[in-house]
Design goal:
Length: 472
């Protein structure tokens, strides 16, 4: 009897307890998919899809340029071929991302070297959208990565094949910070930490870098996080740790967890399989679950990241028959909490987009507080100018107890042309902001003085002419 009891106790210790061990992934019914969409055939390793509680956007094939479609979430079923697209780019679109602070604003980047910001009307497009709200020019080669700042309003990061990272103040249409002498090869991924005080990049030069975005300087870096030569992806996870996906020397796919305070050895490194597709990581800070979606795979693996060894615990895998060309990830505030939905993906096939719902089975219909801690809401905590001046803002959290309801109307998006100067991390462009600003202001003052002088002369001429006419 004692032996049986001991074995039961031991077995309980072996099986790790977790409320996410039984996360269940399921595709929605056929009539809730978005059908007959010609998804882009580009081989670029981006998500090709972005989604928020209002819209789903997908990069599509387009003749004579680049385009993407934006659909209201409710517009499911077969999509008409004549549906209007966002088609202002002259080259194929490589990445799109909705603004986290305004569901009607979306950014796109393209092979035409430009970044464009678009405003989508509430009901979706009724005619082709060709003119962006603002066009951001600053890259010399195609732009393949976009990421909005998580807490600062209207701050956008872009990375291009010119090995340059630019931080934009979107409202002013200006490149404020340009990191152009750090990466010596193609940038594979770039993302923010939770409050946007750091940037994490992975690069073809086999280095992982944690960067101070405003100074454009390296805080710490890791050489060869994965031995293989294929692309590495990296994201910040809980407590400032870093999760990377990459390949071994034998081309086996790997996932690793790192502590930036001690980059010498990984906290854990696990080999997964021998597939060739790049693993795109999506991390949920509320649950500590990371989802790995491989380009060209037909499955989504999910792991729980914890403080106890081996740190990255395999949970389960969602499998289907068809491979994925891209993947959109719904923000937490767009989920159905009454159905215990903890994640929703929008999987791109050749000709359709299929939502996949991840749920934790529970018998009770009551709100599950342990599954839904307060999560990041749409309200920014700091304005762009203040953030560039050095102010950080923690995410403003909201409760999902009664489902997410927007309490404030989206802020009106206005572009303001300013005299903001660009700072650069390269030694050749270290002219101070104040000097540039003074030069611009003095030239503007000079132009205004000349204009006033011309107007005065014009008034004098008109006055003389009137007096001459009166005397006649």
């Amino acid at each position: 009897m004692d032996d049986v009891l001991l074995s039961v106790i031991m077995s309980r210790k072996v099986v790790r307890t977790s409320k996410f061990r039984h996360v269940f992934g399921q595709a929605v019914k056929a009539d809730q998919c978005y059908d007959d969409i010609r998804i882009s055939q580009m081989t670029w390793d981006s998500n090709f899809c972005s989604v928020n509680p209002k819209f789903v956007a997908m990069i599509v094939d387009a003749s004579g340029g680049g385009a993407f479609i934006v659909l209201p979430l409710s517009k499911t079923g077969r999509i008409d071929m004549s549906l209007p697209t966002v088609c202002g780019h002259t080259g194929p679109v490589l990445d799109i991302e909705f603004c986290p602070h305004n569901d009607n604003i979306i950014a796109s980047c393209s092979e035409d070297c430009s970044v464009m910001i678009w405003e989508i009307p509430d009901g979706g497009l009724i005619s082709p959208l060709k003119d962006p709200v603002v066009k951001l020019d600053g890259h010399s080669k195609r732009v393949g990565i976009l990421s909005w700042h998580p807490t600062a309003h209207n701050v956008l990061m872009s990375a291009g094949c010119d090995n340059v990272v630019i931080l934009w103040n979107v409202v002013h249409g200006e490149a404020v910070v340009r990191i152009d002498s750090m990466h010596t090869d193609l940038i594979y991924s770039a993302c923010w930490n939770r409050n946007g005080s750091q940037i994490l990049t992975s690069c073809k030069d086999k280095k992982l870098r944690v960067i101070d975005p405003r100074k454009g300087s390296v805080i710490c870096e890791k050489d060869k996080p994965h031995e293989g030569s294929r692309p590495v992806r990296a994201v910040f996870v809980s407590d400032g740790k870093i999760l990377t996906t990459g390949f071994s020397r034998m081309s086996e796919r790997q996932v690793a967890l790192w502590d930036p305070n001690n980059f010498s050895e990984p906290l854990t490194l696990q080999e997964l399989d021998t597939s060739s597709g790049v693993l795109l990581p999506f991390f949920d800070p509320d649950t500590g679950v990371v989802y790995l979606c491989g380009k060209g795979d037909s499955s989504i693996r999910y792991f729980e990241v914890t403080d106890e060894a081996p740190y990255v615990h395999y949970l389960s895998m969602y499998s289907s028959k068809e491979s994925q060309k891209g993947m959109g990830y719904m923000p937490k505030r767009g989920l159905e909490v009454n159905k215990c939905e903890i994640a929703r993906f929008y999987k791109l096939h050749e000709r359709k987009c299929e939502p996949i719902v991840m749920t934790v089975p529970r018998k009770s219909d009551l709100f599950q507080e342990d599954l839904y801690p307060d999560t990041i809401g749409p309200e920014p905590s700091v304005e762009a100018d203040d953030w560039f001046a050095g102010k950080n803002g923690e995410p403003i959290l909201i409760s999902l107890k009664d489902g997410f309801v927007a309490t404030t109307k989206n802020k009106e998006f206005k572009v303001i042309k300013s005299l903001m100067a660009t700072t650069s991390s390269s030694s050749s462009n270290r002219q101070s902001d104040s000097v540039v600003r003074e030069q611009r202001e003095s030239s503007d003052v000079q132009a205004l003085q000349n204009e006033v002088k011309e107007l005065r002369e014009m008034v004098e001429q008109l006055t003389k002419r009137v007096s001459d006419l009166e005397s006649n």
